[in-house]
Amino acid sequence: MNISAIAKDLVPLLGGKENIVSAAHCATRLRLVLADDSKVNKAAIDKLDGVKGCFSNAGQIQVIFGTGLVNKVHAEFVALTGTGTGTASKAELTDLAAAKLNVAQRLARTLSNIFVPIIPAIVASGLLMGLLGMVRTYGWVNADSALFIMLDMFSSAAFVILPILIGFTAAREFGGNPYLGATLGGILTHPALTNAWGVAGGFKTMDFFGLDVAMIGYQGTVFPVLLAVWFMSHLEKQLRRRIPDALDLILTPFLTVIITGFVALLFIGPAGRVLGDGISFGLSALYEQAGWLAGLVFGGTYSLIVITGIHHSFHAIEAGLLANPAIGVNFLLPIWAMANVAQGGACLAVYFKTRDVKIKAITVPAAMSCLLGITEAAIFGVNLRYIKPFLAGLFGGACGGAYVVAAKVGMTAVGLTGIPGMAIVQPMSLIHYVIGLVIAFGAAFAASYLLKYKVE
Predict the structure, then answer these.
(1) How many Å apart are CA 142 and CA 146, to the nearest integer?
(2) At 386, phi and psi to the nearest 5?
(3) Which end of the chain has fewer CB within 10 Å, C or N?
């Protein structure tokens, strides 16, 4: 495979060097910010050697090459075009990409930027919760032992300080000082406030100039700190415009923290708690009352949502489910896992229906990627190209989703689906999770293979 030729052929299909603002890459895709997306010839790009698909998402043109190859193509592409991150600043590139998104996509991208950096911490806690569950279920260690108590501490730590983690990343995303955001998260989880999980044992109220303030902490909550940091970031920007430079270092953080602290504890915190609990309990009620039907609908529509990029916003809702002491389990992620794996089954069926050597070469690794939770290559590179395999994937996702909801499969973290998701499934649900994966993959494969559609 001639990497130089691929990069050279790609440039004119993107509208030429002058149309390319920046070039970056992730694990599998070349991510391009262009001045004018209408100049892109996606059909021709799809036919290039090594390309597994081309699509537009999050204000970028994304070309799928796959793990390893994308690094080489990116290096050659940057050397050829002289773009890299371009001459524009990171903020300018962000604004240019954001300008191409609708309101829902911008919200989803914002939430993604806030929650994706803290997923490793939540995953680690989720894995530890799974281990702790097995220890408790099988009686491997006495619950009063030091080992058990330490594991319990390790598993809950990320959720106890979740507002601090969110405060840091949210402030960075909203343009505020991340350390002030973390400080605000610390205020909302201060030991002087009754722990959010211990409210049933009673809590104090304080009279603040005639206002009764419930001294309840926000440990493990999501929306209160999100809203408070958004307010804080805007307040900080306004203060910096008005306070003289000589006093900025002293007065701006002081006024930001004291004003936001009062507003957060008196107004934003309680309102955010109501919002978060409302969403969590609403989904929980739907999950309990609609049962398998909810799984059928959610599993059958999730891949449609993935195409828009709005699925990134679900991280906030899932974190809220886990952090809510009355729920404490992520019942949405198993459904998303079924939808992801189903697209892999539908993609693999195309391998047995096509004679095109290039398509065959794409389908197998793309299908296997879905088993690991990465669906872009299958969805954009194969299934949407022929439409009916994508519909078959929706069918498989619906079948798998209905099963895991009926079996009450739950997860203890966010971020992992497919086979890796087995690590964060509640121990008593693991066998049903595996059965769900088989149902989703098998149903999608069968539907994709039996449906009639023209392939090369």
Answers:
(1) 9
(2) -110, 0
(3) N
Distance CA 181, CA 268 (A): 14
For tokens 């191409």, name the residue: 100
Q: Tokens for 125? A: 């806690």
pTM of this structure: 0.73
Q: What is the pLDDT of residues 75-125, one digit of tens each?
A: 999 888 887 644 444 455 555 566 666 777 777 778 878 887 888 888 788
Strand-strand pairing, 53-57 and 205-208: unpaired
Q: Are 425 and 334 in contact (CB under 8 A)?
A: yes
Q: Which residue has the higher pLDDT, 412 or 123?
A: 412
Residues 6+ apart with CB under 8 A from 296: 398, 399, 401, 402, 405
- Alpha helices in 19-142, H assignment, sequence order: 42-46, 69-81, 90-98, 103-115, 119-138
Inter-residue contact 414 to 312 (CB < 8 Å): no
Tell me the two tokens of residue 314: 């679900």
Our CA dihedral for 135, 140, 141, 142, rounded to 10 degrees, sits at 100
Residues 265-276: b if buried by 16+ CB within 10 A, e if exposed: beebbbebbebb
C-beta of residue 308 within 8 angstroms of C-beta of residue 101: no
Give the residue numbers marked as catalytic.
26
* pLDDT tens sequence across 12-60: 999 998 899 888 887 678 988 888 888 999 989 988 988 888 888 767 8
